Amino acid sequence: MILRTLRPVFVLFFVAVVVMAPGTRAESAQDAGAMISNLANQALQILGDKSIPSAKREAKFRVLFAQNFHIRSIGVFVLGRHWRLATPAQRKAYLDVFERFIVKTYTVRLSQYAGEKFEVVKAMGPDDRGVYLVDTVINRPDRAKISLSWTIRRAKAGLRVVDIVIENLSMAQTQREDFAAIIRKRGSIDGLIAALREKMKKLDKG
Questions:
Q1: What is the pLDDT of residues 155-199, one digit of tens each?
Q2: What's the pTM?
Q3: Which of 44, 75, 87, 149 could form a disulfide with 165 if both were Cys (CB 3.0 to 4.6 A apart)?
Q4: 147 - beta bridge partners?
Q5: How far apart are alpha carbons 118 and 44 in whole angstroms?
Q6: What domains can be seen in the chain, in order of their start residue?
């Protein structure tokens, strides 16, 4: 299951529509492209720095992640219809463990590309839903390029990533399917929360 969770993936989010805060300017596609270029290069630099312990690299990446991803929207989308059924206490517990889990997932995934050259190919948007799309590649010497597409929305605090598609597979959609399967097996949202904690322990052990 964890291997499927780490598969690349990208899908548009249809939850928690993020509106522009009054008095702020509308970002352009160029702004979105610059944001992703800065984010990706910082992430690959952090995760590629083997001079510091992995726990410290992950902590640095978590700060960067929180600053650039719309964690709540991603978490709500991934939980799907079960979000509506959750109690306030379950929602809080889920979002807390989800943030830590997704940071761990992205850390493992992106660490594979640390040290490679990152390039923005094309930036588009916003469309009529306020969505920006940024197409990028990771250039690897003597190996095939890796394609990543970033879906971005504007939040009150600025542009935020809501999904990444790696080689035509959406991280968010894959996790949504995996989480639904876990809930079916475990029988509840509490079971999902417990399962995510178990997965993180396994990842920590390597």
A1: 888 999 999 998 899 999 999 999 999 999 999 999 999 999 998
A2: 0.80
A3: 149
A4: 137
A5: 9
A6: 2-10+26-198 (3.10.450.710)
